[in-house]
Amino acid sequence: MRSTIFLAATAVTLCWVATAQAVDPYAGVDPYWILLHEPDVIDELKLDSDQRPSYQKLLDELDLRFFRCRNQSVKVAQAEMAAVVLDAREKLKTILKSSQNHRLTEILLWRTGTAALLREDVATQMQYSETQRKRVKEIVTETQAAVTAVEQEASTGKPREPLEKKYRELKADEQRQLTKLLKPEQRTTWNELLGKPFDLAKLGRPSFKAPELLDSGDWINSVPLTLAKSRGKVVVLHFYACGCINCIHNYPSYLEWDERYRGKDVLLIGIHTPETESERNSANVRQKAAAAKFAFPVLIDTKSENWNAWGNSMWPSVYIIDQRGYVRYFWPGELKWQGNDGEKYLREQIEKLLAEK
Length: 357
Prior knowledge:
The protein is of the alpha/beta class. The protein is 54% helix and 9% strand. Helix 12 links the parallel strand 3 and strand 4 (266-272).
């Protein structure tokens, strides 16, 4: 059982190493917040018919605040994100039963893994000696630093198999050190804190309520559109700027998708948010869109209202929204950057979402 506990939290990171595709869109975000949006976590909570709509309504409202946090300064983003999480925790106390909140805490410990041993509430219950507390921190932080280095290597396109092996060795060594350090009664306490096992392989599928489009009154190839009236369609939303070379490198993928899914329940929408003064000229944006042979709708976001509502921070960025209006996949930057094949990856996700009922 000890090995199961200490190794359980490796699944999420190992999966990332094995399928490295793009920058993690939720890096640095409180894992508790992400777990609230995971369908298998929600299923594990066994919400009843009264709880489920209240739970979803709360998350939908908080999601709009969450998106706006994403492109703020680090200090502001951290403060606003902390406020969102605090609101979620407090309001869920009135929605969830105590047993459901307790299970959510257990899942969070499984998701956090050995890093949870550094939490003050966990440390208090584990009753570390000062020597143990210091050594636990050293073991966990040193291992995480080494794991981060492996992840960075994976993101550059290096062969995955040796990196996965190195990762497993790092976590196994961490486990051996922690098992040796903790007393039997502390390992028992850790078991009790974790509760019954949760399959971490089920994670990685969060969905967030997509912010509604803010109509600037300036559209290309379309009358004004809303996401609310696009339910039943998979929406591929991409932010771009017409003078951005990285954006231009993505154009062939957009054109291919537009042709491939024409007549199907897929809606491609471009949001043009200017980066330079010349890109603020609507006529220039229209001319560039025509030259690029865009036939899909483009919202000209001259005042960056949509950019900020989405908390977007990179040209280009692509969001895949499911038929219910929830963001399921995200790719920041060029789709073909450094040997990655974002076009193929996102196309596969579009197909999956089309197949959902």
